[in-house]
Amino acid sequence: MINDLWHYLGDGANWSGNSGLWANISDHLIYSFSAIIIAAVLAVPLGLWIGHTGKGSTLVVGSVNASRALPTFGLMVLLFILISPHIQGRSNIVYILPVEIVLVLLAIPPILSNTYAGVQSVDPAIRDAAKGMGMTDGQVLARVEIPNALPLMMSGLRSATLQVIATATVGAYIGLGGLGRPIYDGQQQGPFQDTDSGHLATGQLLTGALLVAAVALLIDLVLATIQRYSTSRGITGRYRKSHLPGPANAVVELSEPDGGNHEPTRMAATEATAS
Amino acid sequence: MNRTRVISMIAAVAAGALALTACGSSSTTATTTSAAGAGSSTAGSSAAPGSSTAPTAGGSITIGSANFAENVLLMNIYADALKAKGITVNLKPKIGSREVYMPALQDGSIDLIPEYSGSVLAYFDKTSTAATSDAIYAALPKAIGDKFKVLEQSKAEDKDAVVVSASVAAKYSLKTIGDLKAHSADLIFGASPEYKTRANGIPGLKAKYGVVFGTYKTLDAGGPLSVAALKNGQIDASNIFSTDPAVSADKFVVLEDPLGLYTAQNIVPLINAAKVTPTITTTLNAISAKLDTASLTELNNQVAGGKDSDAVAQEWLKAQGLI
Amino acid sequence: MLSYFSDHQSEIWQLLWSHAKLSVIPVIIGLAIALPLGWIAARYKWVYPPLISIAGLLYTIPSLVLFVTMPGILGTRILDVVNVVVALTVYAIALLVRVVADGLASVPFEAKQAATAMGYKPLGRFFAVELPLAVPVIAAGVRVATVSNVSLVAVATFIGTQQLGTLFDEGLNAAPGQQTSILLIGIILAVLLALVLDFAIQFGTRALTPWRRAVAKP
Description:
Order of helices and strands of chain A: HHHHHHHHHHHH
Helix content of chain A: over 70%
Helix content of chain C: over 70%
Shape of chain C: elongated
Structural class of chain A: mainly alpha
CATH class of chain C: Mainly Alpha
Radius of gyration of chain C: 21 Å
Strand content of chain C: under 5%
Number of strands of chain A: 0
CATH topology of chain C: MetI-like fold
Radius of gyration of chain A: 23 Å
Oligomer: heterotrimer
Distance between the termini of chain C: 49 Å
Largest sheet of chain C: none
Number of strands of chain C: 0
CATH superfamily of chain C: MetI-like
Strand content of chain A: under 5%
Largest sheet of chain A: none
């Protein structure tokens, strides 16, 4: 099995060409990130507004639970059936559009609910203090609520990105490219058998699986790092010893409370919406 | 909150889980059982997964099919005819492409499958050069070995074909596969994943006709994705099967194959030799005798129009006096 | 749509039942495994980070990948249902370990102290005090796992498992007039199933935590 994987990975012909592995990786990333960006553009402002004003919170809760129940696979096929008669001519748009729509629908609720939860979770005392300092509504939002909400927002973004990368593989069923392609094609040709075509299929399948898992992990790592460093140090409690001379107790070196993994758990957001 | 409450809830959930799994393993019926379900919990490859039903006088058999409509229809035809003769029939429809269902035949998960003579020969003997119906049929017994048997073949054929849409045919004046050679670099070919690697697929097009397509789009084996893509112009050529109703309905042009890339493909039952009985032989031979390409195409038409595959099978069998 | 449904009722009910089983069983097994693991992670602080990292890693792997590689890992046949169950159980464990650990960690220390003072041994305390108090958090996780499963199980169509996703495949291959009907039946049933399971878990949670209701009534 591992041999089949190495053979397939090692064969340069599999990487090149417009349906080769490089193309699959780049297509997959393009499909995933466009969906995330569109979803973020829609969901972040909405979440901020709902969190800030407190109106429409039931919408948030309802949409998150509903989206988890969404049979993404079925929706993709349905949208494809509905859209394909209307699109003529050479291009892959007829395969991309149904998948993108479903991916955006999938990505909006986690981003929305985590943005909302993030803004909501800001300590009222802090908001009060900000207003006391004379900040306008907008300034409170921009200077206080958003920075405080950032950890949860990034957490939602990470969760959404992972789901999107995973679900984009399913698009191969209706003919979309991306990393689902080698998985699906390998699967269709009878892998895990001791025949020539079986070995080829196993290699293709495992390659696709390995690549998409690797891409998902890598992206998650990148996002986790961004999350960690974009969160204001006032929130995470990570201070560095000052290099200035002075009283030894003037600066605090706190260790990170939970092993540097200071992201509010997904469960915090889930519990907020589940109760 | 006390311990008894927790324990009783856990017990209730565990009992529920056990009940669910028990329900699952006992629901092996003779109808379209899950292709997976019947083969799962039993470690050995039992050739008769529907063993919960008592064996009748006629014995039992498991019939599988490939993942396209015509093969499911043929499976239904075989199944209904055998059922009428008192044989217990288990079905495993839509297993997948030949690369997937052949191992199922080989390990006994299925006993019988409607096959296409040329493709079977190519699967078992890659070096064979037989191209006509009779030559292929004569070469089959040796190629498939003792474990399997082919019964009599039918006159009905469903061949692979390279198909283009009417507009593409007109644009490049295409009549034969060879005509593609001059333009193929600009063209997009769309078909199943296995077509890209099979000997009479893309490699065969290159070897026999020198046709190399610029882009290959992986869709399905002459199924709805390929047909829609050909119709709507996402691809220029595809591998659609000759009895597919879409060919006439959507005015596709079947390119001629003068060099014989595609051999004859007569419908023939491929069966596990151990499962052959006189009843099965006579029943299936009778079906093969009555089936021809025109009627097969017509039956495919009916299924494509929305009629239930099994209903179409039964009607045809009744009309032919076979049940 | 209704005519297709009535014509194929028994087949559709079987698919729905199969889908329900495949959604629920992995969560039950996953919870059974996640409870001790989560308890360990909550009890021994040094276990928490590596365990949660591994869980996070597993959860990151796309479901399709787990489904198709299972036959290779387990040595099962390709069309085996076990592949789906094991893959989804892995997911459930990955999700629930963290939930259980966080839930158990959120039990107030005073409650545990009081239980010990009353004479509970650690195991007794776990079942009588810690677990019940952690139920709301764990139940939230179970809801997420179960409802996500309903959508994930449909992807098992790729490996030939018979469940509601089969309707999606059938819908794609059906005659043009019927395609939308079949697909809608599958989608609607899947959503309904998710809702029913969600309510069932919520109801069960409420049954298990009567003390939360005690304060609500005036």
